[in-house]
Amino acid sequence: ARAETDDPTLDKSRYNLFHPAPEGALRGMDTDRPNLTNTPHTIDAGHLQIETGLYDASHFHDRTHGSDTVTDTLSLAHINARLGLTDRFEINAAIDSYTRIKSTDNLAAQTSKLTGFGDTVLGGKLNLWGNAGADDPWTSDFALQPQVKLPTAQTGIGNNHIEWAIGAPFVVNLVGGFHLGLQTALGQERNTSNNHDVVGWQN
Fold first, then answer.
1. Coil, strand or helix: which one is 130?
2. Alpha-carbon distance 77 to 149, whole Å?
3. Percentage of the chain modeled with pLDDT above 90
4. Are strands 69-84 and 89-105 parallel, antiparallel or unpaired?
5. pTM for this one?
6. 3-class secondary structure for 182-203?
């Protein structure tokens, strides 16, 4: 991680992809974390940030409607590449390099396993205010983050359908060095039966 060197009085609107922000004007590193609240801050213009996770794992036991199914999902080397186009706008591409799904139907005593490439998400982020990442109490930062999921995963790992969402990450500085991060997202996604689209609202 690098030290915070951003000068709030510096006009960074003149920087873009082809005229990058200089080293001394860069904001401190801030990351978007998969499945958690994203940051409202964007990557500085003309700079690329690559974020990766070693692994993500989930365990789900479904006993609804008389079923008894256990699903374990493992994703390795999730990559999110973020490129700053202007001081307040970035684009990104996120992929799950490897996914393994193991599903066990305890009633039928059957187990299935799937491995392969995951889905790809393309999108961007537009910071509306507070992009400097200042630490003064009660200052806030807010952005809009549209994302489109492309069905690059094989059947069974993904749902083979395009989905989209628009997120709104927000952070406010509290007293004592604490921060409160919130995010809401509204979009169109497939239902759990994968037979029609529904409106999804995540918080």
1. coil
2. 18
3. 73
4. antiparallel
5. 0.85
6. EEEEEEEEECCCCCCEEEEEEC
